[in-house]
Amino acid sequence: MKKLWKGNEAIAEAAVAAGCRYFFGYPITPQNEIPEYLSWRLPEVGGAFIQAESEVSAINMVYGAAGAGARCMTSSSSPGISLKQEGISYIAGAELPCVIVNIMRSGPGLGGIQPAQGDYFQATKGGGHGDYHPIVYAPCSIQEFVDITYSAFDIADKYRTPVMIIGDGMLGQMMEPAEIPPMRDLSTLPDKNDWAACGHSDGIPRIINSLRIEADENEEFNLRLFEKYAVIAQNETKHEYYEIDDAEIVFVAYGSVARICKAAVVELRANGIKAGLIRPITLYPYPTDAVAEVAKKDCVKKFITVEMSMGQMVEDVRLAVNGLKPVEFYGRCGGNVMMPADLVKYVKEGK
Amino acid sequence: MQKLTISGFGGQGVLSLGKFISYSAIEQNLNTSWLPSYGPEMRGGTANCSVIYSAEEIAAPVIDKADILIAFNEPSLDKFENTVREGGIIIVNSDIVKKETTRKDVKFYQIPVDTLASAINKRGANVYTLGLLLPIFGDISEEAAIHAVEHVFESKPKVIPSNIECLKAGIAYMKDLLK
Description:
The complex is a heterodimer.
Chain A: E1 3-6, H1 7-17, E2 22-25, H2 33-44, E3 48-51, H3 55-67, E4 72-76, H4 78-93, E5 98-104, H5 120-124, E6 135-137, H6 142-159, E7 162-168, H7 169-173, E8 175-178, H8 215-236, E9 239-242, E10 249-252, H9 255-270, E11 275-280, E12 282-284, H10 288-295, E13 302-307, H11 313-321, E14 327-331, H12 340-349
Parallel strand pairs in A: 2-3, 2-4, 4-5, 5-7, 6-7, 10-11, 10-13, 13-14
Antiparallel strand pairs in A: 1-8, 6-12, 9-11
Helix pairs in contact in A: 1-2, 1-6, 3-4, 9-12, 10-11
Chain B: E1 2-9, H1 14-27, E2 31-36, E3 46-54, E4 66-71, H2 74-80, E5 84-93, E6 107-111, H3 113-118, H4 125-137, H5 142-152, H6 160-178
Parallel strand pairs in B: 1-4, 4-5, 5-6
Antiparallel strand pairs in B: 1-3, 2-3
Helix pairs in contact in B: 1-4, 1-5, 4-6, 5-6
């Protein structure tokens, strides 16, 4: 039976259902319901919740728990995610699986607590130092929050990589009906005994480290990491097309903004304007081919990338479209949210 | 499909009225979204939420033109009256909101919700208002709303009967008005 779930709490329960038993975090609006929920829920299922003394500390606890083979996660919102970046780079460098949730608010700096999408670059281009990318998912509904969170831990384990799920304050705070999948039997979780520092490796030392001081060794590691990213791109890239078949005006948007675009598509079509939407579900790997295919179609006149930022994903859209069609940008920022009517007006009047 | 903006002082049950509507919609097998205001606009006392229900998939959870505005205080009426669609409905709690709407193209109901509800249950204003809405909606049954009330008050079963009474009184009051 579907229940009414708040976005943040749905993520938390889906993580528990997925077998996550360890959470480390530090409070920040608008994601506080995630740690709040897990603070009582994890002890119920024999797990542990720790409110760390800082975000830096929390992500390093994730580093440690992941290194010990535990299914673990952290969550925060934009400024807190910035603080975690060093740790995320180390986790990527040590090839450890974990899930990181960013319920974005507006920036830069402390910014505001209202919804925004200004952390696209940070999430997808490797917010910390060095050549790495987490897998980045951008769900657009509470049910999709649940489904993606539920599978994210398996994806992280499969590729031994950090997985980031990004939403915004609107998705975190809103409620929708959703169904949580069944509780995962912990005995079915992947066996990590061949690499994790879990204390019973028959006397064979295990080293979890991201230090590779020899240039050749580190280059080899980087090359291997990017071979892995190529496999991830092959297997895990996800997008949704909406009303794209005969579309002349194509919106590209992710997360909550994609839903606002959907409403605009419906209204534009009711007004005789053939609009459609490409919704990337993975932001890294980016569904470049899905955008490029649409760009090749004769009926498509232009793309409009819509974001709650000054324009970040638009760069990936332009790379994918590769000059075949014009790519315009419509954005709101600072915590303001565009309305479907704003997009209808933009398409009709060009502003 | 209905798009509602519900607004008032924090503590007036604005957010929980929205949840009652969403729960009722679920009980009726409809899709629904509930989007609360949070953050700076809540400071200074007003809280609001956007509630949508529909037989179709709900695209945007934000509302640019509401079908119905429920204003529990005057700042809410001022702030949101111009966001109601032409031919839409504005309901104010006339125990608190003493002024009229400036809109000429909407149906305007002034209902002393606090007075009417408190005769049955001092904390029943939001469930009473849910009752007022059902005859307007037309597509959510009394039974679904009763299930929603039972669900929300699952942990406080003592208050369920008086809330159901509030719900029924609200339904009867609006049915009378619509006659």
